[in-house]
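Appendix B, example 12.
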Amino acid sequence: MNTPRTVLITGGNRGIGYTIAEEFVAAGHRVAVTARSGSGPEGSLTVIADVTDPASVDTAFTTVEAALGPVEVVVANAGITKDVLLMRMTEEDFSSVVDTNLGGAFRVVKRASKNMIRARFGRILLVSSVVGLYGGAGQTNYAASKSALIGFARSLTRELGGRGITANVIAPGFIETDMTAALPDDVQDDYKKVIPAGRYGSAAEVAKTITWLAGDDSAYISGAVIPVDGGLGMGH
């Protein structure tokens, strides 16, 4: 049994973030999620926060610390997409995606690191994407923001690795969500043909990888990129 920890997941009100929160709750951890609207799963504490606003992030952490104790595990999951071909991509299309996906991770991890350094323990988990390594047409903004998390995690590992803190990147591939379910059958079949596993992953498969990386057995893994993609991004 892993030691119960205080866990904060950004963007935990829907999709993969919601399932990650469910998995941590089921494993007996003290779980909080940030959301701009909506709420996390039963058994979790929801705090309203905007990861692009440092004051909002600070307030969310202060609330969680008062209720559940210092954050020991942080999962930077909040992200947005604004897919558009480069020639048509506006400054705002680019900057807003980078500020949420990369800047948001920076703000959340910076705030979490204060207590982690003091406690000489921490697990920093950054949710990237196979697109960050594989690329995607119309996704220069998104892919750049997700790829940048790798340099961020590896620099964190060099800075904080001697203090009992790990920083790892999880790179999900095609995962079963409302978005993939809405795709036409022929499009889904085309996607599945390029995935060696021949199927989409489940949000639970991503969540279980993350809870394992947050646990006691993974203390010597840091600066790694863990693909959960059925083999789609091999070699990248």
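The radius of gyration is 17 Å. The mean pLDDT is 95.
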